[in-house]
Structures are given as C-alpha cells and as structure tokens.
Amino acid sequence: MVSAAGLSQRVARLSPSATLSISALAKAMQAEGLDVCILSAGEPDFDTPEHIRAAAIRALQEGKTRYGPTAGIPALRQAVADKLRRENGLDYSPEQILISNGGKQTLFNLAMVLLDPGDEVILPVPYWVSYPEMVALAGAQVVRVQTQEAQGFKLTADQLRQALTPRSKLLILNSPANPTGAVYHRHELEALAEVILSVPHLYVVCDEIYEKLVYGEARHLSLGSLSPELLPRTILSSGFAKAYAMTGWRIGYLAGPKPIVEAAISLQSHSTSNVCTFAQYGALEALTSPLSAPAVEKMRQEFWRRRDLMLEGIRTLPKVSCPEPEGAFYIFLNISQTGLSSVEFCQRLLKEHHVAAVPGVAFGADHCIRLSYAADRVTLEKGLERLHRFLSSL
Ligand code: PLP
User: Fold this and answer.
1) Which are the contacts of 385, defined by CB distance < 8 A and separation ≥ 6?
2) Is the CA virtual torsion 188, 105, 375, 338 positive or negative?
3) Is 209 a pocket residue for ligand 1 (Cβ < 6 Å)?
4) What residue's CA is closest to ligand 1, atom 8?
5) 151, 173, 254, 345: least buried by Cβ within 10 Å?
6) 252 — phi, psi (to 5°)?
7) pLDDT exceeds cutoff 80 at 2
8) Measured in angstroms, how far is the CA atom of residue 338 from the centroid of ligand 1?
9) Atom of ligand 1 nearest to the CA of 207
10) Which of 179, 218, 125 is nearest to 371 (CA)?
11) Alpha-carbon gap, residue 308 to 388, rounded angstroms
12) How does pLDDT run across 315-360, given as a tens digit for each residue?
C-alpha cells in the first residue's frame, strides 16, 4: 500500500522524538526573548573538555580527514576494549568493538541485525523514547513491562519471567536509566541474570551510556561482567556523549559477540561508513588521557549537587512524588494527583510558567513528567519555584 505522501509503511507509523520537539519549542520561546527555564534537555550543559577538543583539532591539522575503516580507527577500537576490561570487567577484543555515530546508531544497528518480524523485545516501561521506534522499524514486536515507582522503576526477575514467550529475542536494559535515573544494583542484576540464563534464545542489549553519572552509594555494574555465561548473551551499547559532554560529536560504540558485531559493521558499511575521522581522535583522547578522569569527576560532582538541590525542592512541592534517582541527570516526577495528562501538564507549564519539561507519555508513562537537571543551578531553582506556583494553582 502506498501512502498519500508516497511514504513507506515503515516510516508512516514513526513518531518524531518528543524530547527533541519540546526543547525546540522552548528554544523558540527563548529566541522571542522569553525567560524560559529549560528542564527538558537530554544533554550535559558543559563544554567538551579542552584536551579532547585539542586532540580533534590536532588530528584535523595533521590531515586526518579521509575515509577510515567502517568499524573505527584501530587505536580507538583498542582503547574501547581496554576501557571495558579495565573499568567494566568485560573481556572483548578490538574486533568485537564497532564505533558508530552515537549510541543511537549503535542501537539502531543492533535492532536491524538482531530482529526479525515476529520477534519480541521486552522493554521495561518507562523507556527511552527511541527504543520502541527502532524495534518497530525492524518489524519486531515490543512487549512493554510496567515497572513500579515503589521499586525505583526497575524491572524485577519475576516481571521478566512473566513477560517471556517462545518469541522473546531481546531484553533492553538501560542503567543508569533515561528517563528515571534508576541504577540497577548487583543483587537486582543477579536476579535478572538467573532468568536470562534460563532462556537459551534471549539476548540483552545493555545501554550503559550514562555509566559515569552515578551518585551516592550507587555503583555502575555491567551485566555481562557477572558471569562468563552472560557475556555471549549481552551486547553493550555506550558512547561519549553523556560522560564527556560530547553530544554533538556523534560517537558511540557497541561491544558484543563477533558475529553480531561483524553483521553490524557490514550494515554500517552500507549506511554511514566510518564516524567522522578526526572526531574519533577526540574520543581516543577522552579514553586515554589522564586529564579525562578529573574532568568527568568535576561534571559528575556538579550533577550530584544539582540532583540533591532538585530533590530538596521537590520534597516541598504539592501533589507530586518521585523515587530518588541514583544516576543520569533526570528526575521522573509522578503528577497523577494533578489529574492532568502529561502533555496537558507540560504544555501549561511551558505556556503559563515558562518551564520546559518532557511529557512522560513519550516514555510510556502518562502519569509522569521528566525533569532534566542538566542546567545551571539558578535555572533549576527558578524552575522549582515556578513548578511550585503552578502546582499550587491546580
Ligand atoms: N541511550 C539513551 C538512554 C539516551 O538517553 C541517549 C541519548 O539521549 C542515547 C542512547 C543516544 O545517545 P547518542 O547521543 O550517543 O546517540
């Protein structure tokens, strides 16, 4: 069947990214001169650390401007493998690494190489906006599993067991999570691992792009490091955007079993080929320079302070609640007591009080909204005051 606009059925069902569109509207209001508190951003508000930028400039000046190998420059694949062994306890060879245009392309590649029509993908709700769209583009079926606020929005082993069918092909786990900030602890991952290993045909995509941003007692743990049997069942997706404030650079990577990585390289060779060559030298610097750890730690400490500032402010707000997020830079606020849908809430908040937040419906949870604290503390405080005024008026 041909749509009126000539579009394929594949894209006719796609919805544009709600997170990007609300930010665009808020930025347009700012451009009109309005004082808008943008609490909808999905990116760090810091600049890429200086030494990383300098490395990319150097690469450019040295003429690193040509096509490179599709899978990434060998030094960067090696550096990612070294990082995963050193920091995550994951044993991958450089041939098991693929450098892609952001975590987004990594995940898209995976959807294309792993899924067939009829396959089921288990997706804990709330989820990051692009997962269900990628699964749908691959023709597979999303099986949504509602997680509970009381359980910190984390999938339990029982919930996973109940969602399994003979068609289950993939589980997508995102920790630290967007939009909830949830971080899976060791005992929670171990309980999930037991279920995963009991099903021989199930793979797990672990989206660990926020791994560097964890607070308090929380520690990031890679599922694949829990046992040697798990490693061949997990595919790790990550990137440089959130940890190193490199969102615009578009560099992500996957690590996984060789046949899967080789298929993804082949797919990428026919779509985008290699990631911008000189940008990869910046990523290499991020992974290998001793200057990176202190730069990342400085940003993490600031995010942590802002998270605490937000939580303190939220405790004084009427009609809302949230579990304490342990990672990423988001707070997922339950607004069900207001009686408004998440879209009505966010539209009124933006139009009447000039605060941009993302409706939870984009993440599969219409009773919540997502607040990002990737904004300076003055903006956060102002945003909290305005939220207070709005909520008190309802
Ligand atoms: N995964 C999650 C959970 C994200 O929040 C994002 C970006 O917002 C991505 C992946 C994609 O990141 P990238 O900018 O590297 O494509």
Assistant:
1) none
2) negative
3) yes
4) 42
5) 151
6) -135, 175
7) no
8) 30
9) 1
10) 179
11) 17
12) 999 999 999 999 999 999 999 999 999 999 999 999 999 999 999 9
Would you state the pLDDT for residue 13?
Answer: 77
pLDDT at 14: 82
User: Does 210 have pLDDT greater than 90?
Assistant: yes
Of 254, 255, 173, the residue nearest 206 (C-alpha): 173
Query: pTM here?
Result: 0.96
- Nearest atom in ligand 1 to the alpha carbon of residue 247 is 14
Residue 146 has what pLDDT?
97
Quickly list DSSP for 204-268. EEEE-TTTT-B-TT-----GGGS-TTTGGGEEEEEESTTTTT-GGG--EEEE--HHHHHHHHHHH
Contacts of 362 by beta carbon, 8 Å cutoff, 6+ apart: 17, 18, 19, 129, 370
Token readout for 73 is 């420059």
Q: State pLDDT tens for residues 102-150.
A: 999 999 999 999 999 999 999 999 999 999 999 999 999 999 999 999 9
CA atoms of 30 and 123, how far apart (whole Å): 35
Domains of the chain: 9-48+293-393 (3.90.1150.10), 65-288 (3.40.640.10)
Q: Is the CB–ligand 1 distance for residue 247 below 6 Å?
A: yes
Instruction: State residue 195's pLDDT score.
Output: 98
**Tens digit of pLDDT for each residue in 216-257?**
999 999 999 999 999 999 999 999 999 999 999 999 999 999
Which residue's CA lies nearest to atom 10 of ligand 1?
Answer: 103
Answer whether 178 contacts ligand 1 (Cβ < 6 A): yes
Q: Give the residue whose CA is nearest to atom 5 of ligand 1.
A: 178
For ligand 1, is residue 174 a contact (CB within 6 Å)? yes
Q: Is 274 left (phi over 0), alpha (psi -120 to 50) or beta?
A: beta
Ligand 1 center from residue 104 Cα (angstroms): 6
Best probe residue, ligand 1, of 133, 175, 178, 240 (max atoms within 8 Å of C-beta): 178
Confidence check: pLDDT of 87 > 90? yes
What distance in angstroms lies between residue 252's CA and the mean position of ligand 1's atoms?
9
> 290, 276, 270, 284: which is closest to 248 by C-alpha?
276
